[in-house]
Design a protein that fits this description.
Shape: globular
Number of domains: 2
Number of strands: 10
CATH topology of the largest domain: D-Maltodextrin-Binding Protein, domain 2
Distance between the termini: 66 Å
Radius of gyration: 24 Å
CATH class of the largest domain: Alpha Beta
Helix content: 40-55%
Largest sheet: 10 strands, mixed
CATH architecture of the largest domain: 3-Layer(aba) Sandwich
Order of helices and strands: HEHEHEHHEHHEHHHHEHEEHHEHEHH
CATH superfamily of the largest domain: Periplasmic binding protein-like II
Amino acid sequence: MQFWRALGSALFILLTSQNLTYAGTLVIESWRADDKLMWEKVIIPAFEKKYPGITLKFSATAPTEYDASIATRLADGTAGELITCRPFDVSLSLYRRGYLEKLDGASGMQYFPPSSMLAWQTDDGQDSFCMPIASVIHGYLYNQTIFKSLNLQAPKTLTEFFTVLEAIKKNSNYVPVALGTKDKWEASQTVFTNSGPSFWHGEDGRRALILGKAKLTDAPFVAAFEFQAKLGNYLAKNPNQQSYADSQRLFAQGGAAIFPLGSWDLAYFNRITGLEFGVFAPPVPNPGEACFISDHMDLGIGINRHASNKEDAYKFLAWVGSQEFAMLYTNYATGFFSLSNHLISVQDPIAQQMLDWRNRCSSSMRLNAHLLDRGIPNFEHALWDVNALLLNGKIKPKNAAKKLQTELAKWTQPRRP
């Protein structure tokens, strides 16, 4: 009898000590190694001030290793309680495999409009598995010193845009557009899906493509490819040898007048002493037309379904949905914009200007991100290749449209937008 009592006491002590190990501690898994200082110096202290009994730890994995690493650690039970979520299929796969909590009705989720939830929902829209955090917005930076010296104004229409580019090209002291094609992805993500929504009318065109009601060979999509091809006339020589980092340096050093922008670039250019820059939204095809922007859902956060400390994880999630978090994140992760419906004030003037575009332009997302990337080969990489060829002058716009539509038609079926 004493043996069983002793054993029971030992088990009780063991279980209690294990619970104490996990209680009050949360680990946030992320691929955003660059955000580590912000989390440790700003976000975590703000949360722990409100919840002094909970300790947060930020754990970053290299971006190229994160997807495989987090899936493995969720499977073997070594992942943290909070999982930073990539948009669309990568996180959907984790949910389908039983690794993420269903979050519908969770405290904090009520502050996000339905449009912001799309990147972290099942195809039928019934289950939400990550809380939205932030999006990135696309536009065009311009060197204010160069524009002033050439008496140029930020363009609002395509005609004005190419008039500006032609004036810069004739001056010959500057490259009109800091853009290369060596890395390929920026040809698609910072140009095609930046200005493209202006041609295919944002979400209307994207949904029509998914449903099979539109094709890439239709006039609006061909017009976007024609824009890309025409833009190629205003790049530096040998753009196929120019990397994304080269383009950043070219603009930062004053060698180029315009930089196709992903808002994440703001943090980089803000560090460049003496660089004065402004920003303009994607020019509309014709005067008076409605404007469209790429306001792409970038990251969310979910809860490990097998976490030992879900109670505190849900407390943190509710705080992530708060106005306080939205303000902190948007202001300290410059260029990443809260997806909540909270009113926020942005300290960075260029970031605020881009955020204001949401009030006058219709927001859309990258054309291929939702559903269309499920084929083999991956449609995103097909877009990279073809858009790089367009900028390099190696393929005609109509042929680019035919090539991509052929690839899409091999596997895609009309789906729920």
